[in-house]
Amino acid sequence: MTSLLKKKALKLSVSLLLIVNLMFVAGLTAMAASDDLVFDNYDRATLGDLAGAKVGAQWTGGDAGKSASIDGNALKLEYASKGWFGTGGGIDASGYKYLKLTIKGAAGGEGADFDLNYAVGENVKTTGKSFADLSGAKISTDYQDIYVDLAANKIDKGIQALHFNFHDGAPAGTIWIDSISFTNSKGAKADTPKADTPKADTPKADTPKADGATTTKEANPKTGDSSNMNLYGTLALMSGLAAILLIARARRAGRNS
Ligand SMILES: [Ca+2]
């Protein structure tokens, strides 16, 4: 090879390394972004406007108490004794670990008043547990994120509908559900910026929700836990440094020839 060809080959390999490195960082950025499946966020004026909402849910129904309505971008369910509310859609939740409900109640403790059942296709499955027992959490009068571990509760991963079945003889009550989603990341906010993933655009001015949820470092089987993310970040940094060193060598070689 001539010296000129060598330089060209070196420049090409440096360029390829840089491209691979950029793709890797871009991949990390995509992984770090929220991959939650939004089943319904109720961010609309009317409950029935599911097409406009562009969410996973495609139908709602039921006879739960007096009404099911939209109130402050949340689903408001008023119940008095026996009744049900259902919502479903053609979702694929098979890749998710948790069902997440951002929920509050008028009095607190409403999770004992209803079972959370579900459907796979047309087949309704009963969990046999109240929402409180299913989630292990108590509904409070302020919004909180409550997680239902799908595998631990033996919930079929083909889940495509949720059924809130209010108990016969339950006291009258009201709950608000701000959003329902499927997630692998228990406790992490969807819009949490990751320090090691540079973004070209300016950070969003999202206001934090006033639900007091805390961020935990629970392992995330889909995107890797936080230590894996640190490892990937270190690898990206190292390959970036390698690329810079190669560029420096190429320039030195250029000067010396
Ligand atoms: Ca909402």
Q: Any overview of this molecule?
A:
It is elongated and about 90 Å long. Helix 1 runs antiparallel to helix 4. Mean pLDDT is 79; it is low at 190-194 and 209-228. With 257 residues, it is an alpha+beta fold. The longest helix has 31 residues, at 226-256. The chain has helices at 3-32, 50-53, 131-135, 226-256, and strands spanning 37-40, 59-62, 67-70, 75-79, 83-88, 98-105, 114-120, 123-125, 144-149, 161-166, 173-183. It contains four helices and eleven strands, in the order H-E-H-E-E-E-E-E-E-E-H-E-E-E-H. The strands form two sheets. Strands 1, 3, 4, 6, 9 and 11 form a six-stranded antiparallel beta sheet that branches. The protein has a five-stranded antiparallel beta sheet with strand order 2-5-10-7-8. The chain folds into two domains: 3-33 and 223-256; 37-183, Jelly Rolls (Sandwich). The structure holds calcium ion. Calcium ion binds next to strand 11.
Characteristics:
6-stranded antiparallel beta sheet; 257 residues; 27% helix; 4 helices; transmembrane helix; alpha+beta; binds calcium ion; 5-stranded antiparallel beta sheet; membrane; Sortase B protein-sorting domain-containing protein; 2 domains; Sortase_SrtB_target; Jelly Rolls
